[in-house]
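Extended Data, panel c. Modelled sequence:
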Amino acid sequence: MRRLVVVGNGKAADAFLRHIQRYPHNLSISVFSGRSNGSRPLRGPAWYRSRGIDLRAGISITAIDRHARLVMGDDGSRTTFDRLILAIGRSQLPAAGLVARKGFVVNRSLETSDGHIYAIGDCAEIGDAGFSASLDQLARNLAARLAAEAAGADVVQRMPKYKLAVVRNPRAAVTAGVTEGALTA
């Protein structure tokens, strides 16, 4: 069984966790929710228990050892991982040698410069400036990828490129294969 650790418990982590439940997977999932900053959690502990997710409420990650694939909690805990998802918003977590600018730089599959670590949400900066997708689309694609990988599939996932096109001539758009519905959607 592969060990998946999710750091963060906001909207991005919640979207990913909702989607991973839709796929059969062989993952042991732990979620580190960190210290509450006065905000209410999106889900209660019963939600995590009913899905077999180990919620480590109130424990913040203080360090990541990428080479040992280990996260260290502020309670002294040490948890190993096969895959790590950073969904920490704009909080300050040591980059652990990951390429970072405004956020952790990721590719379209949300992989950081370390292929075992992913970032989603406000802490991620997608390196392709022309790429955009909703948080839900990104979470769904990441969940599908990690579930398939845990099931032993060779995963080569191509994320579609979403670009905004300004079309001045609707006839040219139809000729190019763009429907009017796509232009107004």
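Residues 157-185 have pLDDT under 50 and may be disordered. This feature is highlighted in the accompanying rendering.
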